[in-house]
Task: structure prediction
Amino acid sequence: MKSFAIIGTGAVGGLYGAWLVRAGFDVHFLARSDYHHIKSNGLQIDSKNGDFRLSHINVYDTPQTMPKCDVVIVSLKTTSNNILADIIPHIIKDNGIVLVMQNGMGFEEQIAKIVAPHTVFGVLCFVCSNKIGPGYIHHLDFGHISIGQYSSGAKPLGITEQLKEIGKAFSQANVRVTLEPDLKTARWKKLVWNIPYNGLSVVLNTTTDLLMQNTYCRELVKKIMQEVLSGAIACGCGFEESFIEKMMVYTDSMPPYKTSMKIDFDQKRPMEVESIFGTPLTVAKNAGATLPLISMLYCQLKFLDESNMA
Amino acid sequence: MKSFAIIGTGAVGGLYGAWLVRAGFDVHFLARSDYHHIKSNGLQIDSKNGDFRLSHINVYDTPQTMPKCDVVIVSLKTTSNNILADIIPHIIKDNGIVLVMQNGMGFEEQIAKIVAPHTVFGVLCFVCSNKIGPGYIHHLDFGHISIGQYSSGAKPLGITEQLKEIGKAFSQANVRVTLEPDLKTARWKKLVWNIPYNGLSVVLNTTTDLLMQNTYCRELVKKIMQEVLSGAIACGCGFEESFIEKMMVYTDSMPPYKTSMKIDFDQKRPMEVESIFGTPLTVAKNAGATLPLISMLYCQLKFLDESNMA
Result:
């Protein structure tokens, strides 16, 4: 597990990729709109863990020119996932693996149609990070990740040897890693944060700190988190209720933060409404759970996304 | 029932007051910020039923200078209701009555502490009307009203003689009138429109037509209306479910309309969040009904109102 290909050199892929470069791994970045800038200037990381610049990195604008790698990291916006089938086969070694470093739900299934299902892993990034310019990433806080192996069957695969190996690579890059025996549950847990903060920050045109300071919204955030938990339970992915309080405390401790969905909205890019809201709602519904608050937030975001893209 | 005092010469009080003037009634308008303009220029009504101007009207800037009238119409924003106790006693005849021409719930109870409870009536205006300048009102559509008598006891008072007399006065002013035997139920029915459209138009920064054209929001509007009905039922104020479809059709037939709450928000005035959302939620809760979608909308509006007023 020595070479990495990063599909999407943004706030997440750029940051973790840069940390892997700094740890001595062989990393190859695929970029689109920022390609020329990164080719000339490399990557600049302003991080609370220490700023650094990588003046020259291996950057590409087409997958055809990239070397085949041991690990492919998918860190695109999920709204562009339709291009993955044309990219991954070009850049993955025969025994390579795919790490899906995206928010929401439903894409491991898609990627398991492109590569062998047992080579797909999900990575959840608990990180406050924004791309503030081409090849320029501001890491505000946190950074630990959870990794779990995708299971095409009903049962989670537990903590496999391969999972441990991936964890080791990130640990070498100074990233704190949790290995998750059950990726589905891990994805539901991540939604406890993503659903209320991404959704409400767009609908109410605000940042996480102001949501938390307002008595009404603070209570609403908590209710929405409880609804995520009830969806998870319906899907057999329940977790301890104390995790909700933990996420509230975690958010309280953050600097004022603009969520990724709010940034997409402000920059008139499509929002990840389907992967963060639509798919979890469908999955929960199929398991018999209606989630009224999240459904309402979904409708509100669909309206705003359509208006914004019109 | 010959003389009328209008407290609040805006989109609603100005319009119905002007129609009463035109029908030959003796009408006295109390105005605040628009007083000087109306004193010099009168009222201009642009209406789909016919434009007209009243060059000179009886307008006052303090209740002390107004004559005592048979009927006091309260058409202030509910956010200013705290001033009513200092106004009404100056301008109402001994055997006078009060018509509360406001949106939401909870104010007949307040006014019944200022005057005798049996002299209080509620008026629901099904009208699209905007104040587009001082003394300048644009009546876009509809205009019929429902009137019911306030009951301080558990039972509605039915259609009393006094109610009929009020209805007759408005009929003479060419206003279509429905007499409501049960004011509480009538107020819940009016909320079927006010809650979804006022709330969502502010949160989603839009107009009624665009909400109705969007598949997701159209469905959401309907779900919120159904929640209003379930609140009404819990309070013993149920009505036929077909009323919901009627309100959808009614809104479809409207011209693109900016709700009063959206206008208040855009003009950085306090919104009627408590009377339209807070009080009905409390009343429903006391009757054992939790209304999750309306509660969420309430939290969102409280956040936006506080941000807007900061």
User: Anything to note?
Assistant: Chain A has a mean pLDDT of 96. The interface with chain B takes residues 200, 203-204, 206, 210-211, 214, 216-217, 219-220, 223, 292-293, 296-300, 302-304, 306-307 of chain A (CB under 8 Å). Chain A has two domains: 3-181, 185-309.
